Amino acid sequence: MRKRTWVSVAVVSSGLLSAGPALAANVRAQRSVAGVRATLSQYDAALLAGNGKTGCALLTKKAQTQLAAANHASSCADVVTVTAAALKSDPKAAAELRGYASQVHVTLNGDSAIVPKLEESGHTTLTYTHGLWYLS
Questions:
Q1: Where are the domains positioned within the chain?
Q2: Reduced to 3 states, what is the DSSP secondary structure of residue 122?
Q3: CATH for 2-135?
Q4: Whole-angstrom distance, CA of residue 38 vs CA of residue 12
Q5: Which helix (DSSP H) or strand (DSSP E) does residue 41 occupy?
Q6: What 3-state DSSP class applies to 48?
Q7: What is the pLDDT along the chain (136 residues), one digit of tens a residue?
Q8: What are phi and psi of 123, to 5 degrees?
C-alpha cells in the first residue's frame, strides 16, 4: 500500500514542460490557475522521471520533511526515486498522473491553492511564495 501513499502526493503532468522549462517556469510565476498547473506539471514530470532534486525543489522545506517522514524514507528525493520505480511498473497509475494537472479543479485563495488528491480523499495545498508556486 505504500505506492498509494507516494502517489497521493503526486499531482500530474499536463504537458506544459513540452513547451520548454523556461516557459513552464514563467507560467509557474503567475498567481493563477495556470501557475498552479505549471507547478503540478513540473512536479509530476520530475516524479515520473525519478528526478528527486527537481521534484523536491518544487515542495516547501516542510513538505519535503513531511513527505519523507510519511513514507519512512531518509529524504524527499528517496521518495521520488521509489515512486518513479512504482509508477514504471504501473502504467495505468502513471497515465492517470500525467493527465491530472490539466484536469484537476484548482481553488485559489490569495497566496494559496487547493487541489483534490488523485484517487484519494483530501487535498493538496500549494503556496505562492518568492514569486513561485510550491507544493506545501
A1: 2-135
A2: coil
A3: 3.10.450
A4: 10
A5: helix 33-49
A6: helix
A7: 344 444 434 443 333 334 445 555 578 999 999 999 999 999 999 999 999 999 999 999 999 999 999 999 999 999 999 999 999 999 999 999 999 999 999 999 999 999 999 888 999 999 999 999 999 9
A8: -145, 165
